[in-house]
Amino acid sequence: MKAVVIREFGVRPSLETVPDPEPSPDGVVVKVEATGVCRSDWHGWIGHDTSIALPHVPGHELAGTVVAVGRDVRRWRDGDRVTVPFVAGCGHCGECASGNQHVCPDQYQPGFAGWGSFAEFVALRYADANLVRLPDDMASETAASLGCRFVTSFRAVVDKGRVSAGEWVAVHGCGGVGLSAIMIASAAGARVIAVDITAEKLKLARKLGAEFTVDAATGSAVKAIREISSGGAHLLLDALGSTDTFQNSVKCLRTRGRHVQVGLLLGEHRNPPAPMARVIALELELHGSHGMQAFRYDAAFNMIASGRLRPERMIGKRLTLEQSIDVLAGMENSTATGIPVVTSL
How far apart (Å, rounded) are the C-alpha atoms in residues 331 and 43? Predict the structure, then answer.
């Protein structure tokens, strides 16, 4: 099969022909019909993820059709159209039994712990516990755009953030995660403030539901958010993942407000100092949010089917597999809007 292969961290990947995958006893092989190109893939290419062994095929935001099934799989068969959370639980441990597969201690992440979806085919483990059946009327590129970004944001806003209609919600960073969070919070009836340093991204944020935008490059985002919301937001999401955006998010909250850290804090930003005096005095809540369980996809699908959410509006460039290499390598400095999706070889 054709696949994008990383042979050295930080060095341009290559499009190669590699052996087709075989299903594990508890897994399946999926023919990839679409796959998103995500900043998490960039982190993996740089070498920030210690679970990656070289050579490696990246990619974790996928949609496709099952073409081979392991001997122990009971719920899936050839021809099923599926996607999968970027965190797959083992299905047997205490966390999985309690419905928290996304924080399984023996989790499997396609595109990180194993070869991913920048390829014609991808092998997925723990199929019975993690695969998600796609609605018949959902296009593969739309399903791939849900990827880790949209569903991660759905859990961050709805499950962890407990968003309510009429609340002020501010989102730092208008990449794929941030724009998804903006759309979801707006659909829930919240008043949304989008923060970024790129005019085009802020323009798209307004189209997707932001009532106000703040250009953090031209002044204090903290001051602007507190003024717009008359004292601070009820819910803040750091969708970028940096020391500054994390600290600014906490400083923007009103009393008993909720911060959700959804952007990855990696490299030099791995352990940012927290303004804990403010957290204690205002009884603020600090939450981490990491993916979403397979069984929660139905809630997102129902909102999409009702027309309240339109994730296809966030799709940016449609790419070939070879074009994904340039997008991946240039992601750190990219100002492109929307989610790039590989839709053809």
Answer: 10
Task: Name which of 279, 189, 192 is nearest 229 in CA terms.
Answer: 192
10 Å CB burial of residue 25 (0-12, 13-18, 19+) is: exposed
User: In which residue are the tokens 């804090």 written?
Assistant: 265
3-state secondary structure of 335: coil
For the stretch 86-105, pLDDT in tens is 899 999 999 999 999 999 99
| Helix locations, the chain, DSSP H | 39-46, 94-97, 127-130, 140-145, 151-154, 176-187, 199-207, 221-228, 243-251, 276-281, 297-305, 323-329
Residue type, 1: M
Beta pairing class for 14-17 and 212-215: unpaired
* Percent with pLDDT over 70 in the chain: 100
Ordered by where they begin, the domains of the chain are 2-134+310-344 (3.90.180.10), 150-288 (3.40.50.720)
Would you state the structure tokens that stand for residue 248, as one six-digit string? 């600014």
Both tokens of 329, joined, read: 């390598």
* Torsion over CA: 196, 198, 200, 201 (sign): negative
Per DSSP, 28 falls in state E
Question: Backbone dihedral region of 338: left (phi > 0), alpha (psi from -120 to 50 degrees) or beta?
Answer: left
- Range 178-187 average pLDDT: 96
Query: What is the token pair recorded at 262?
Result: 């959804």
Q: Is-contact 302 274, C-beta < 8 A?
A: no
Q: Is 127 helix (H, G, I), strand (E, B) or coil?
A: helix
The C-alpha atoms of residue 202 and residue 213 are separated, in whole angstroms, by: 6
